[in-house]
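Extended Data, record HTH araC/xylS-type domain-containing protein
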Amino acid sequence: MPTSILKDKSRFDLNYYDESKTANAFHSHFEYEVYYFHKGSCTYLIGDKIYTLSPGDVILMNGLTLHRPRVLNKEEYVRSTIHFDPEFFKKMLSGMSMECLLQPFMVLNSCRLHLNAEQKEEFEAALKRMDEFNNEKTEISTYRFQLAFVELLTILYAFTKEAMENQHKAEDTSDQADHVQQVISFIESHYMEDLSLERLEQELHFSKYYLSKIFKKVTGFTVFHYVYHRRINQAKIVFLLGPSSRVTDVSFNVGFKHPAHFSRVFKKLTGVSPEQYKKSIYS
């Protein structure tokens, strides 16, 4: 069902068990989104992350990060999606002292959850109840629809509570962590350019020796191991979206000076050459 009985009141959209295939470009929106993958084949791109989905996967999104599914024409693709205005439901939930149910979208931003068999059964049952109340379109069913959605948010909160607690524990507010975050933010904006420790030192005003030491301490990676991962991940996204992309062009566009170096790093990090990776996508 492409729309819900609450749409006019709260910018709420329920699309249940959708089997259609439409072209989806990268997009963003202000609504929070719950995406549930029922069955088929789909690769989902959110920002610089690539998720190969399995039936029973849930994606939670704050909506602002660019995202899109990639679906092969010959493959089945069944999903349910919910888009909702967080401000409307924040007011509604605060009246019940339950605004914490929106925390997964704020704390985890955009994340993928693997549901086990029991969680999958519980989540699918809640989705189905929402759709049934949505189809009735009566005054009482409207109330029950809202309650069913609150139940769904409660289920998601339970699924993500441990992840959120781990996220809070991992948030190091020390100066070193802040400095590493500055390095990561700079790399995110400039990974496709010629990067060196000397440039980081000049741009961020920290000693390159200090940056190298704290980056490895906080992340477990060297600075350039991280840069290479970011570049290769971007190359994989380009290959996914553009089957005709030339390996040489992609290598230059993601920041490598020499295609041979790009190919070596790509194989080291993925286990296959760029050419083999392209063939595996479109075979």
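Summary. The chain has a mean pLDDT of 89.
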